[in-house]
Design a protein that fits this description.
By secondary structure, the protein is α/β, with parallel strands linked by helices. The protein has two domains: about 210 residues, 3-Layer(bba) Sandwich (FAD/NAD(P)-binding domain); about 170 residues, D-Amino Acid Oxidase, Chain A, domain 2 (2-Layer Sandwich). Helices cover about 35% and strands about 30% of the residues. It has twelve helices and 21 strands. The strands form four sheets. An eight-stranded mixed beta sheet has the order 7-6-15-16-17-14-18-21. Strands 9-3-2-13-20-19 form a six-stranded mixed beta sheet. Strand 10 and strand 11 form a beta hairpin. The relative contact order is 0.17. The structure holds flavin-adenine dinucleotide. The site of flavin-adenine dinucleotide (FAD) has 33 residues, from helix 1, strand 3, strand 4, strand 14 and helix 8.
Length: about 425
Amino acid sequence: MTQAFDIIIVGAGMVGAALATGLGQQGVKVALIDRATPADFDEHASPDIRVSALSAGSERYLQSLGAWPGILAMRATPYRRLAVWDETPHPLSKLLPGTLTQVEFNAANLGASHLGHIVENSITQRALWQTAEREPDVSLFTGQAITALHQTAESATVSLEDGNQLSAQLVIGADGALSQVRDMSGIGVTRDQYQQQAMVISVRYQGEVEDITWQGFFPSGPRAFLPLHSAGSNNPGESWGSLVWYDSPDRLAELKAMDDQQLMAAITKAFPKRLPTLTHIDASASFPIARQHAKHYFSHRVVLAGDAAHTINPLAGQGVNLGFQDAQCLQGLLKEARRNGDDLASSHWLKLYEQQRRPANRRMMLAMDLFYHLFSNAIPPVHLARNIGLGAARALPFARNRVARYAMGLDDQPPALIRELANRLPIPNWL
Ligand SMILES: Cc1cc2nc3c(=O)[nH]c(=O)nc-3n(C[C@H](O)[C@H](O)[C@H](O)COP(=O)(O)OP(=O)(O)OC[C@H]3O[C@@H](n4cnc5c(N)ncnc54)[C@H](O)[C@@H]3O)c2cc1C
């Protein structure tokens, strides 16, 4: 049996579920498919190992979809301060006192109540499933992957594992970095594996919930702390946190082989001194890190969004924030297409989507690469240059705060000078 929709979204991760909600609210008949079925929220359960720093811009988008109250009702941790500093031990470090090269952003100085929220991915996804389910025009197909995708001049048809078929004018591939939709529609990628991997560790620590997220840059990669919620009455005086340890695959293999006690000792030794006292390691997982960009964002009746279109180095936590920007842009253009009575897969609108999103995603990828290369080495001139850069950022609070307001999604536009510089940046063809 074939059921007909306007749009099929494959992948109900954070980006796909946001798109389904937004399109459903515009009166589009949407089928939202995911091979997984998320577990119910349990306030006593340990946090999801995957957490994201959601920017103020993402919060506004999630508010507009009606998902933000659901996220807050489960749990989200606002952070009001963000600090970064260089931890490379080198004789030249002594030229500049450590405190001079630490840059700290504070919401109060940026005229904001907070800089962003740390939210478990499963909570954002669950809240968005709830908003999607509330839309009468959205149908969810969960617990099954797609097995085939066929496109004709009139429509696209997706086959599900249970043998059912769904057809629509447009298929949105929001099925993550290993997107099957992307492969099935013949869209290639450019991919570069970084020499570092990331290990994420869920921990409990002694103390109140922190309002700061920080990252110390070591030559082998950054080590970061993200605050989570209180550990509750079973663990009085303790809070949850998420640590991210970027290092070489060999070093991460050593860490993975350790038991909890050994890992705790290794973290305490390797992490910056300001790490609160850890009391418990709950879970850990490691992720390869790659920069990947789809060669095209659309092909015939298929368009890509979120990680299916691009993955970036997570060191500044921008991945899903970019995905939400894709979703907002695509949603807006499809609204125009419908208003014009156009085919939703019209290349006119999909081209506009790619023209708007590709340069923005590419710029963020380049910025992350710059950070990665600047901070992941101990060559003396580079070391000195980045410390001077951090010192300058510290000394120029006005310019720094303008840039920070944009980077954290508090402002929609970057300062004019930065906009001008970014537009002049040469962009390599391979990106
Ligand atoms: C270590 C680490 C830290 C990160 N930290 C941050 C951060 O702080 N801030 C931030 O913004 N980003 C962060 N990111 C990136 C962020 O996690 C991703 O950008 C985000 O999850 C992408 O969302 P998505 O919905 O596009 O894809 P995904 O989250 O990958 O969701 C894809 C969905 O598609 C489904 N699916 C896949 N294949 C099929 C199929 N064949 N059929 C049906 N369903 C399918 C999956 O079940 C899944 O639900 C981090 C990433 C890593 C690795």
